Amino acid sequence: GEDVEQSLFLSVREGDSSVINCTYTDSSSTYLYWYKQEPGAGLQLLTYIFSNMDMKQDQRLTVLLNKKDKHLSLRIADTQTGDSAIYFCAEKLRAGTALIFGKGTTLSVSS
Amino acid sequence: GAVVSQHPSRVICKSGTSVKIECRSLDFQATTMFWYRQFPKKSLMLMATSNEGSKATYEQGVEKDKFLINHASLTLSTLTVTSAHPEDSSFYICSARLISNTEAFFGQGTRLTVV
After folding, report:
1. Model confidence over A34-88: pLDDT tens digits?
2. Which of A1, B1, B36, B97 has a Cα at 20 to 30 A from A45?
3. Partner residue facing B105 (CB), from A45, A98, A100
4. Distance between B37 CA and the closest CA of chain A, angstroms
5. Residue A85: beta bridge partners?
């Protein structure tokens, strides 16, 4: 079945690294995504990774994919208060299909 | 980058009335648009997949007569909530995908409150 799981909350101090974890059950995922949602706003695509890759880095963001364990993580280096938001992990199974989302991880950054 | 615009961003309506939400891809063509509903502290629930020029495909449990979806062009899809009830109050988000592209871009969402 299709299921994407995330921890619900993460709290870090400003300047620390944040690591948000996600697990999924369907091994046929083609792409995996990370989205950011600020209060009352839509979803902003942060980054995505193709299922045959194991790492992708984009400035402060590092995505790690362990396909064997069906585990995806998002690391945010030097976390800032502006990074406080809900982060959604999502997978796409086949071309043209909708994304399947986790319930989101609320990241709280304290100064 | 690709921009998806939703309108309105907030709407309050009375029970029994209908509300139309627009989703536009501003700088690209999207053969497929997706409509999601987000409940408080919950993930996004896919409501339907909207294909340009054809009938929308609804997810199980979503009433197609209540949530009317029209995808009249490659840049516009509309969701009409008919005979709205307070339990329809929610955050509705659309998503559009570029033709032959991996990324899905989301609108800013519409907060619907039915009183």
Report:
1. 999 998 788 888 999 998 899 999 999 999 999 999 999 999 999 999 999 999 9
2. A1
3. A45
4. 11
5. A107
